[in-house]
Amino acid sequence: MEKLEAYRHCIQELLLDYSQHKPAHGEIEVETIFDVERNHYQIVYLGWERQTWIHSCIIHLDIKDEKIWIQWNATEIDLAAELVARGVENQDIVIGFHSPFMRKFTPYAVG
């Protein structure tokens, strides 16, 4: 249970840090979404860019079976490296948006 709490805290800090950076264009809000009960964490962009409505998930992380799953990363940040720098071990990170076949070629967990 300590590991789960530590990972929740780590993810929340990482996303709160990232959410401080607003897009330079448009009237875009940066929303952090934390479902701590079910271990789902997201950053969503929401607003208008000229005449276009923006609603986009930029980062999506989950915790499953004591591993942090990077489900989506539409940023230039290496989220896995950021997690490792914050104390998460490589074998506890899964790059979920890579196929299981491709995951075995990364320094992180397969699943």
Describe the structure.
- The protein has 111 residues and is an alpha+beta fold.
- The chain has a single domain, classed as TATA-Binding Protein (2-Layer Sandwich).
- The protein is 25% helix and 38% strand.
- It has 3 helices and 5 strands, in the order H-E-E-E-E-H-E-H.
- Helix 2 links the parallel strand 4 and strand 5.
Domain module tally = 1
Rg, Cα atoms, Å: 15 Å
Question: What proportion of the residues is helical, as a percent range?
Answer: 25-40%
CATH homologous superfamily caption: XisI-like
CATH fold-level topology: TATA-Binding Protein
Could you state the order of secondary-structure elements as H and E? HEEEEHEH
Percent of residues in beta strands: 35-45%
Distance between the termini: 20 Å
Biggest sheet overview: 5 strands, mixed
What is the 3D form? globular
Order of the strands making up the biggest sheet: 1-2-3-4-5
Tally of contiguous helical segments = 3
CATH architectural name: 2-Layer Sandwich
User: How many E-type strands?
Assistant: 5
Parts with pLDDT < 50 across at least 5 consecutive residues: none
Class based on secondary structure composition and strand pairing: alpha+beta
